[in-house]
Structure formats: structure tokens, C-alpha cells
């Protein structure tokens, strides 16, 4: 629902870096007012706000951990009171804690499942309720090729990302009659801090499996997200879109 100036409001979790950052900037460029949450990096968040407002809209950054339901509801309430009704929600917040299964600690399992899967539950539950009241909305969740195909040393991450696909398809069936669409983007290797944190040898090995011969750019993923968020995708829901340069894992 557009406000009086014809502007629309988009919510992005994990918008301070990487794909979330590129998504905030892309949506701001398309005329959205944007609100994003982040966990810790305040200076990175401030930079995104400066860049997004450079496109002429408003941008709000809120420190909110997606695993904390109260914090997520507070972020949504602050967004709606400051910017207006949320029409688009994109869940980008995510982490990795890679280990072969037999070496994986409870903490590595729990933190990935709670940030990646419970975090999506918290953001979508809050946003869907707000959208249902207005009978309009678009939700885009971020999965991964690891969630579609599985990836060695990432049982925790793959499980969380496969869970997001099931969650999103179920939610799409639940809220379609309220005019809300839910779609999932499953990227391959995208050049962000998440990939830079991998050992050089693992990155090189993974890159060898990409027929297009390079990492993807966060902006290329944001482009797909912006399409799914927009009315150009008005008949697209309950779908998973892979964007991975042909990678086979
Ligand atoms: P980055 O590590 O570059 O950025 C992650 C973002 O999420 C940061 O803004 C970070 O904020 C935020 N974040 C992390 N944990 C929380 C939390 N608990 N609460 C709130 N915000 C949080 O990740 P990418 O951009 O690479 O990844 C974005 C999404 O895309 C993730 O879900 C990831 O799994 C998925 N993806 C990424 C791929 C890739 O190759 N890069 C491939 C496939 C999927 P802060 O800095 O404050 O911690």
C-alpha cells in the first residue's frame, strides 16, 4: 500500500551487509522507503542509510536480533509508525558455522538453526500479520543452493535453508487468499563477507564448480529479489528461484 506520496515500504532483515545491503539499496532506488535490521555492525548500517536516502526515500536502521521475537515485533512497530504500512518483507539475515557433522557442536547447530530458520519465522510472522490486515504484500525469503542440493560440512546450514523452502511454500498457501505472495531465492556463491570468510582453498574448489567461472554479485541477487517484490511478479508465488551461475554441488 503506497503512502500519500505514492511511496511503498519494504522491510529487510540483515540489511547492513552483503545481499541484504544490496537489496535495501536496490529497493530504495526503485522508490521504496526501506527499513532494515542488523545485529551488531552499526557503522555498516549507518553507511547503508546514507546511501539509501541518497535515492530520495527514507531509510530506517534498527539493531534487532532476528532470533528475538520481541525485538522483531519492536522493529516492525517502529517501521510502521515511522514509515507507514509494510508491503514487502525480505529475509536476508543469515550465518554459517561450517563443520563436518561428527565434529559439529550443539552451539554450531543451534545458532545456525535459530538465526536462519527461527529468524525467518519471527520476521515472517510479524510481517504477515501486518500484511493480512491490509490484504496485500510480498515476502521474499533467502534460502541457498545448499538448501536445495545439500553441501558437505554444512548440515546445519543446509537443514536451515531447506527448512526455509518448506516454510515459505506452506506460508504461500496460507496467505495467498489475503493477496500476499511468498517466494524464495536460493543463491549459489555470492561475493560477500560470508564467502570471504571461507578458507581460500575451499573457495577455489567451489569456484571450479561454477560453469560461469565467477562468484555472483550481491546486486545480481538483489535484482531478482526486487522483481519478486514488485507487481511485475503479481502471479508468482510459492516458487523457488536458484541463482548460481550453473553451480553443481
Ligand atoms: P553477510 O554475512 O554478508 O551479511 C549477513 C547480514 O545478516 C548482516 O547484515 C548481519 O548483520 C545480519 N545478521 C546476521 N545475523 C543476524 C541476526 N541474528 N539478527 C539480525 N541480523 C543478522 O551474508 P550474505 O549477504 O552473504 O547472505 C545473506 C543471505 O543470503 C543469508 O541468509 C545467506 O545464508 C544467504 N546466502 C548467501 C550466499 C553467499 O554466497 N553469500 C549463498 C546462498 C545464500 P551484522 O553484520 O550486524 O551481524
Automatic annotation (TrEMBL):
Pfam families recorded: adh_short_C2
GO biological process terms held by the UniProt record: fatty acid elongation
Oxidoreductase is among the record's keywords: yes
Keywords of the record: Oxidoreductase
Ketoreductase domain: residues covered: 8-193
GO molecular function terms attached to this record: oxidoreductase activity, acting on the CH-OH group of donors, NAD or NADP as acceptor
Family: Belongs to the short-chain dehydrogenases/reductases (SDR) family.
Protein name: 3-oxoacyl-[acyl-carrier-protein] reductase
Organism: Actinacidiphila yanglinensis
Native organism taxonomy: Bacteria, Bacillati, Actinomycetota, Actinomycetes, Kitasatosporales
Amino acid at each position: 500500500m503506497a503512502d500519500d506520496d505514492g511511496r511503498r515500504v519494504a522491510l529487510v532483515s540483515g540489511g547492513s551487509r552483503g545481499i541484504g545491503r544490496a537489496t535495501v539499496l536496490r529497493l530504495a532506488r526503485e522508490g521504496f522507503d526501506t527499513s532494515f535490521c542488523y545485529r551488531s555492525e552499526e557503522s555498516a548500517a549507518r553507511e547503508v542509510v546514507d546511501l539509501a536516502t541518497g535515492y530520495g526515500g527514507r531509510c530506517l536502521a534498527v539493531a534487532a536480533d532476528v532470533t528475538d521475537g520481541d525485538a522483531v515485533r519492536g522493529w516492525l512497530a517502529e517501521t510502521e509508525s515511522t514509515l507507514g504500512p509494510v508491503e514487502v518483507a525480505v529475509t536476508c539475515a543469515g550465518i554459517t558455522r561450517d563443520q563436518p557433522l561428527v565434529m559439529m557442536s550443539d552451539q554450531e547447530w543451534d545458532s545456525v538453526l535459530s538465526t536462519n530458520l527461527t529468524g525467518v519465522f519471527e520476521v515472517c510472522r510479524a510481517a504477515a500479520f501486518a500484511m493480512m490486515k491490509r490484504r496485500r504484500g510480498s515476502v521474499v525469503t533467502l534460502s541457498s543452493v545448499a538448501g536445495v542440493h545439500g553441501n558437505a560440512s554444512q548440515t546445519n546450514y543446509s537443514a536451515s535453508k531447506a527448512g526455509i523452502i518448506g516454510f515459505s511454500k506452506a506460508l504461500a498457501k496460507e496467505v495467498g487468499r489475503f493477496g500476499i505472495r511468498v517466494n524464495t531465492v536460493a543463491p549459489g556463491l555470492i561475493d560477500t563477507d560470508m564467502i570471504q570468510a571461507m578458507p581460500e582453498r575451499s573457495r577455489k574448489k567451489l569456484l571450479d564448480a561454477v560453469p560461469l567461472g565467477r562468484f555472483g554479485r550481491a546486486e545480481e541477487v538483489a535484482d531478482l529479489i526486487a522483481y519478486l517484490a514488485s507487481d511485475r511478479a503479481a502471479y508468482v508465488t510459492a516458487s523457488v528461484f536458484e541463482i548460481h551461475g550453473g553451480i553443481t554441488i
